[in-house]
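EI: anyone free to look at a 65-residue chain?
SC: sure, send it
EI:
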Amino acid sequence: MTDSVKMDAIIRDRNRPQKHVARAQVLIATAAEHNQDPRPFTWTADPQRVLAAVSRGNQALESID
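SC: here you go
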Protein backbone atom coordinates (compact mmCIF):
# COMPACT_ATOMS: atom_id res chain seq x y z
CA MET A 1 0.00 0.00 0.00
CA THR A 2 1.51 3.35 -1.01
CA ASP A 3 1.66 6.33 1.32
CA SER A 4 -0.93 8.23 -0.70
CA VAL A 5 -3.34 5.27 -0.53
CA LYS A 6 -2.80 4.99 3.23
CA MET A 7 -3.37 8.72 3.68
CA ASP A 8 -6.50 8.60 1.55
CA ALA A 9 -7.86 5.78 3.71
CA ILE A 10 -7.11 7.72 6.89
CA ILE A 11 -8.80 10.83 5.55
CA ARG A 12 -11.91 8.95 4.46
CA ASP A 13 -12.13 6.99 7.73
CA ARG A 14 -12.45 10.22 9.68
CA ASN A 15 -15.58 11.17 7.72
CA ARG A 16 -14.18 14.52 6.65
CA PRO A 17 -16.34 16.70 4.42
CA GLN A 18 -15.70 15.95 0.76
CA LYS A 19 -14.07 19.34 0.06
CA HIS A 20 -11.40 18.61 2.69
CA VAL A 21 -10.77 15.18 1.18
CA ALA A 22 -10.33 16.77 -2.25
CA ARG A 23 -7.90 19.37 -0.87
CA ALA A 24 -5.89 16.70 0.90
CA GLN A 25 -5.72 14.62 -2.26
CA VAL A 26 -4.40 17.63 -4.19
CA LEU A 27 -1.73 18.24 -1.53
CA ILE A 28 -0.71 14.57 -1.55
CA ALA A 29 -0.51 14.52 -5.34
CA THR A 30 1.52 17.74 -5.39
CA ALA A 31 3.97 16.40 -2.81
CA ALA A 32 4.32 13.11 -4.68
CA GLU A 33 4.97 14.96 -7.95
CA HIS A 34 7.51 17.27 -6.32
CA ASN A 35 9.34 14.33 -4.76
CA GLN A 36 9.83 12.67 -8.16
CA ASP A 37 12.60 15.14 -9.00
CA PRO A 38 13.84 16.63 -5.71
CA ARG A 39 16.40 19.44 -5.73
CA PRO A 40 19.02 19.83 -3.03
CA PHE A 41 18.62 22.76 -0.66
CA THR A 42 20.99 25.61 -1.51
CA TRP A 43 21.88 27.95 1.32
CA THR A 44 21.85 31.53 0.04
CA ALA A 45 21.95 33.63 3.21
CA ASP A 46 25.15 35.40 4.19
CA PRO A 47 26.47 33.66 7.32
CA GLN A 48 27.52 36.98 8.90
CA ARG A 49 23.96 38.33 8.57
CA VAL A 50 22.59 35.15 10.17
CA LEU A 51 25.01 35.44 13.11
CA ALA A 52 24.15 39.12 13.51
CA ALA A 53 20.43 38.27 13.63
CA VAL A 54 21.08 35.57 16.24
CA SER A 55 23.03 38.07 18.33
CA ARG A 56 20.22 40.64 18.10
CA GLY A 57 17.70 37.97 19.05
CA ASN A 58 19.72 36.96 22.10
CA GLN A 59 20.00 40.60 23.18
CA ALA A 60 16.25 41.06 22.82
CA LEU A 61 15.57 37.93 24.88
CA GLU A 62 17.99 39.03 27.60
CA SER A 63 16.30 42.43 27.83
CA ILE A 64 12.96 40.74 28.58
CA ASP A 65 14.21 39.18 31.83
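EI: The two ends are 52 Å apart (CA to CA).
SC: 👍
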